[in-house]
Design a protein that fits this description.
- The protein is an alpha/beta fold and 390 residues long.
- It has 3 domains: 69 residues, Alpha Horseshoe (Serine Threonine Protein Phosphatase 5, Tetratricopeptide repeat); 77 residues, no CATH class; 205 residues, Rossmann fold.
- 48% of the residues lie in helices and 7% in strands.
- It has 18 helices and 7 strands.
- A 5-stranded parallel β-sheet has the order 3-2-4-5-6, sandwiched between helices.
- β4, α14 and β5 form a beta-alpha-beta unit.
- The chain is globular and about 65 Å long.
Amino acid sequence: MVSLSSRDSKIDAILGYVVLRDAKLTEIMFRSLRKDPKLASYDEWIKAGDFALEMRFFPHAFSCFQMAAEINKDENVLIRLQDTLEKITNVLEFVPIEIKALVDEIRFNNPLDPSKWMAIVNSLLKESVNEIAFNKIEASKLNAIKFALAFAAYVSLRSGAEIDLLNDLLKDFLLSSNQNHNPKLDLRYLSANQIKTVVLGDNISLGLEPDWSINFQSTYHYLWSKDSGLNVSLASNAISGAGVLDLALYLGRDAIYYKPDLAIIMLGNNDAWFGKTIHLAYQALLEACINILHEHNIKVLLVSPLPHLPEACPPDQRPTDVDLDEVEIDDFVRITKLVAQNTNSTFVDLLTVFPKNKEDRKKYLINGFNQPNLEGHKLIAKAIDQVVIK
């Protein structure tokens, strides 16, 4: 049994439909970024905003509702605006306890301001300098420092700043794993009950198609849950374009508040477009988020990034101009595996699942470079099933 988090997706699953998206609504959704309410009617803005919400494109939804409100500030649109604003602004509710107070001071106003995060980093390092020097720092404070350094690195890099100093500090705090095993995910104790599962990831986990449709029933997690023989309640909270920074921002909204038994996480393909300079921050932030999930008794199944083909990505769709050699996924798979070992999480290595030959791999990619087709999703689902004890 599979139940979904959104009303429309639930209907789709019951009826067995794949929703074909209205090209006009897609156009209006992106038209909202021009901030001209005259570009569509009130009803069109509302429909496009609801469409964007379903796609989990929250900033676009907010822009659509803003345009509708410019035409008519009725209760209908004001409620939508408030609900969407909460989805966007209520971030970073769950962070290491040592920086909770510092983060609360900025999270509603400027949670992505590099200078604010550098101030948090400086504050932590200043009060911990003696403990660090004598290698007597408590684990909780060390985790807080790594989280702050990694978050500062991400927001700094996104703003165009150099992060060499942050990487030098992270390098001193991150450890390699001495573990070589990959624990299987034991669901036997839950097999008699409904297994509440959330999926956190990007466009791959969302099931986004090249034509802007969402084919939930072709996603690897739906296929796995359907064929697993388990009673799975599945909430797909993936966001197209998401990376590990989004995982940290919305850990409460998209995972913890669901009180799931299991979180399936698949990230890294968007992070890879930052290149090698983000490796350490990716490791630290992913590791911190998984530790927080474990603190809330949530098991984690960590799926590696997809072996994509960055050279096949059309130039106008590439989010950065980083050298394509740096965008190759192998290093991010290695780091994700290391995080799984450090956090005692179950790991699925997609490098061993998809063909090594790039031409053969294309047969499993619907757009030729980073989105699996149905057969590709089936490969991932089968790999998940092989690491689960039922």
